[in-house]
Specification:
30% strand, six-stranded mixed sheet, single chain, globular
């Protein structure tokens, strides 16, 4: 993580408060709908409308949510918001090069590794650290969305999202049915 892992409820509250107070951050709490507990947080930040780009990150979940569909569901929601509401062309994602778990999750989203920023920032554990930079572009979003949807069960998706996916699939089938036959 870019920030030190919170070790108390008070430390976690400080992280949330600083993100909420920062006007350049659109922070989201990720809530487990079954229990009503906060599973973690994720954010959009450094939004530059005139350049049609935003960064997605500042994500962490409680260890008991690792390996579940919480990350995929939250990324589907945030990427949908970024590409379909904010109408960005590019979403950037970064992670510490030592964080292989996050790097694998970013690649699984369909993002492309662009490179490494050497000695990019101070690590929470002391020394300067390198950051891997990934991006997902607007024309890559449909494939990324399809991959995320495929990973999720219907119970993981909001009803509106399920309806939108079904409608989109109907349109694709209708286009295929009405397509001219090859010569």
């Amino acid at each position: 993580m870019a920030a030190e892992r919170p070790t108390s409820k008070r430390a976690l509250e400080r992280i949330f408060a600083s993100r909420i107070a920062d006007p350049s951050v659109i922070a989201f709490a990720v809530v487990d709908e079954e229990t009503g507990t906060v599973a973690g947080t994720t954010s959009l930040y450094d939004y530059v409308p005139e350049q049609s780009r935003v960064e997605l990150g500042m994500t962490f979940f409680g260890r008991n949510y690792w390996g579940r569909n919480v990350n995929a569901a939250s990324k589907l929601a945030l990427l949908t918001f970024a590409f379909e509401e904010l109408m960005v062309h590019r979403v950037t994602l970064r992670c510490d090069v030592r964080n292989t778990r996050s790097a694998a999750a970013i690649v699984k989203l369909g993002a492309t590794l662009e490179g490494v920023l050497r000695s990019y920032r101070w690590g929470h554990d002391g020394p300067r650290v390198d950051s891997s930079i990934y991006s997902l572009l607007e024309h890559e979003w449909p494939a990324s969305r399809a991959g995320l949807v495929q990973r999720l069960t219907p119970a993981d998706l909001l009803p509106e999202v399920t309806e939108l996916i079904e409608f989109s699939e109907q349109l694709v089938r209708a286009d295929a049915e009405n397509a001219p036959l090859p010569a």
